[in-house]
Amino acid sequence: MNELENEIIRIPLLALRGLSVFPGMLLTFDVERQASIGALDMASKSDQLIFLATQKDLTADMPEEDDIYHVGTVCRIRQQLRQPKGNVCRVMVEGLYRAEALTIDTDPKGYIADAARLYDKEERVSEAKMEALIRNCMSLFEEYLRLNPEVVTEQILNVLANPEPAFVSDYISQHVHFNIDDKQRLLECLYPSRRLALLAKLLTTELNIMNLEKELSEATQEQLNQNQREYYLREEMKIIQAELGEDGLTDDIGEYRERINALPADDEIKEKLLKELSRLQKQPFGSSEAAVLRGYLDSCLELPWGKYTEETKDIAKARKMLDEDHFGLEKVKERVLQYLSVRQLAPDVKGGLLCLVGPPGTGKTSIAMSIARATNRKLVRVSLGGVHDEAEIRGHRKTYIGSMPGRIMNGIIQAKSCNPLMVLDEIDKLGSDYKGDPGAALLEALDPEQNSTFRDNFLEIPFDLSSVFFVTTANSLDTIPRALLDRMEIIELSSYTDEEKLQIAKHHLLPKQRKKHGLKANQLRISDEAIKEMIRSYTRESGVRLLEREIAAACRKAAGGIAEEKFKSLSLKEGKLESVLGPAKYKPDQIRVTDEVGLVRGLAYTSVGGEVLDVEVAVVEGTGKLILTGNLGDVMKESAQAAVTYIRSRARKLGIDPDFYKDKDIHIHFPEGAIPKDGPSAGITVTIALISALTGTPVRSDVAMTGEITLRGRVLPIGGLREKTMAALRAGVKTVIIPADNESDFEEIDQTVRAKLNFVPTDHVDKVLDVALRTDLENSICCTTEVPSQTERCAVRQ
Predict the structure, then answer these.
(1) Active site residues
(2) Fewer CB within 10 Å of terminal CB in the chain, N or C?
(3) Residue of 379, 312, 377, 306 lying closest to 344 (CA atoms)
(4) pLDDT band at 563, cuts 50/70/90?
(5) Is the model's pTM score more than 0.90?
């Protein structure tokens, strides 16, 4: 083939992958593909000319005509080097001029193209502008050479030796690492000034990228140098510590640092822990401060950062668990199921705060533990009885010897979960002294608006307690601080009725004690009547603790007899408990046979449930003294004084000598004087007893009453009605006088109690005088008969 300038020539074509060659430039590359080697062979057998064009898709092994750029460079083969092994040839070519392939024959034995030469086009550009473009490109190329250590900086001299626009643009384009598309644009541009402008733009972009790469590289290198420096220093420290016998310290420091960095906690917390770790690292061997810091870091890292247990979503399953564990307690169960229902509809709802209040033995602590099982939360129990130091709740400052986290954070560590159920037992028995008020310390922990950033004095970092479900228990609300009480949802657990105790004993206590003592069901049988007798004659409580002890005693008796082979089984029936449990400890309350003057049955609410409380009044000749005995509190004394004043104001209408307070001494006594008594609910009882004693009218023995009295005789509402009415039923009372405002509490009274008692609501003492007093007989004591007809006309509730 001949080198022609104006005609179309047929010339071998070699498709380049990822390379471009410009006119006047040398390029060395390897050839492996069969079609490319065939094109080289054809060029070698002819005039050493070959057309080099770049293929668009680098992955195509046999590119088609559309896969190859049609503008390329006609080159002369300067050198070929065949490898001794393999089908690889190294080629050096020199670019001659630009050309365009009009057609391409993609013969697998060697590509051939019909190519036409392309000349630079003339343009009207001043020499000054052209010179400016050349200088700009050369300046940018010089900066490129400075930033790129792989390129020899002497190449700028080659550009200076031939400052022609075409040569400058082609030389720089060949030696700068542009992408294939950009190089193709430079190759296809036939206007020298435009080519220089495009080259300057591409060089500027490339320099910006290289500057960014340099900054990133320098930052990375600086970090590597710092890490390397720290590594060498640590290695030296290891050697020194090994000589001093402290070689384990460095490993611990590294382990602490890894654990801190891996914590799913805020940066503030990590920064605090790393600061304490840095202090530990500077401590000398054997330092007491080092031991404190280690304990501090261990406590912080033991906290369950980001660990939660998945709550139960099956409400029916949760209800079944609660019913399996406890009989009754419907209010608590319903509240827990409501919480789970809300969590299903609003998963972001945080933990709750319940306060279970009731007499001892009613299942407050055990139902709290059952709630944990039903909700699938980890259980933590914190006993607050007798705690009188604020540090027990919030922890000690770590500057003190033996300091440790408070009970709440210790509970979180013990649970290994951020959303446990935490039972704060006996919260009403918190104390306070010069060491602080633990009740006040609980305010932050139990307040849902504050406990998301609870800070323990020992840990000194915020911890989120908002997902904790707090359940507190108490026997009375009187001793709980008002601010603390305001934060809790109160659920009252009242005393069990005898029927409820029977069911609890049959389904829970008896199976539990049988299992505990290794007995089978057929080895110990206790009839329902025997359990009822056990409840009446061997226990006197609002809960079932004493009942469980009596059942345990029966189990021990059965186990002993079976072990000694005295019998194979034991069956307990009513009337046969004395041989197993001993004599009865309590005699059932018997109603008095006679109606007596000045003796009235009141109803009281104590820590163990309801009780019948007799009030005795004696009127004797004297000088107007009022004597109150029976270990009474101030409120009860004031209630008695109010009753006396009311009677004085109504003396004539009641048929009482108006001057009785001058020449009569009145003695009001409450039996069982060793037991402290207080409260206003005995006001109506004292009033009726005084009227009976002053008028000589007997009081019905089958009537009991409760209510606060005012100076005008109004009867005000009281608390504990459910427990009081249960005590009245046990004592054989038939009629109970209650305040009219307590009618709304009837739904809480057990159905059995409501069915067996007549309730007489009243708002004034005058309205129940004929109910409480025997007005059918004058100045006589007689046997109790049925309640007068007026009782039936009162608002009786059953």
Answers:
(1) 681, 724
(2) C
(3) 312
(4) confident
(5) no
